[in-house]
Design goal:
The protein has 126 residues and is α+β, with helices and mostly antiparallel strands. It has a single domain, classed as Zincin-like, CATH 3.30.2010.20. It has six helices and three strands. A three-stranded mixed β-sheet has the order 1-3-2. α1 crosses α5. The radius of gyration is 15 Å and the shape is globular. The chain starts with 7 loop residues before the first helix and ends with a helix.
Length: 126
């Protein structure tokens, strides 16, 4: 299978388009979150997630809204990382990349709202 490669700008545009397509009510409570794009996950990220083999398309690092309390104030932003090359390696068309980016961004945003893996799998967002 030939690997799909986009420029960083093209990939970023896909991520931004997904974020822009989220309902305004969700965007208004997407609080204190940075969304970044990296080529691949670092070894430390894979190890922390317990992934010895397999693929990691995105990663949410932070305190979900459902776990924040009144002591939550001046803290570093939560971080959602989308892994460009990892996604491209499993896709063969621009449409497949766009679909996987959409699934990954929504999956990681859902973690920010406290939605776990099991529920995401049931909803078809894993």
């Amino acid at each position: 299978m030939e690997r799909m490669r986009l420029t960083e700008a093209q990939f970023e545009e896909l991520v931004v388009d997904v974020l822009d397509s989220l309902p305004e009510k969700l965007l208004n409570v997407l609080d204190n979150v940075d969304v970044v794009i990296e080529p691949r996950p670092a070894r430390e990220q894979l190890k922390r997630m317990g992934i010895l083999s397999g693929t990691l398309f995105g990663l949410y690092e932070g305190i979900p809204l459902t776990e924040r309390n009144s002591a939550y104030s001046i803290v570093a932003p939560d971080k959602i990382t989308i892994f460009q090359r990892t996604i491209e390696e499993v896709c063969s068309t621009p449409e497949e990349v766009a679909d996987q980016v959409r699934t990954t961004v929504i999956h990681e945003v859902a973690h920010h709202f406290g939605i776990g893996e099991e529920t995401l799998e049931e909803l078809g967002w894993s």
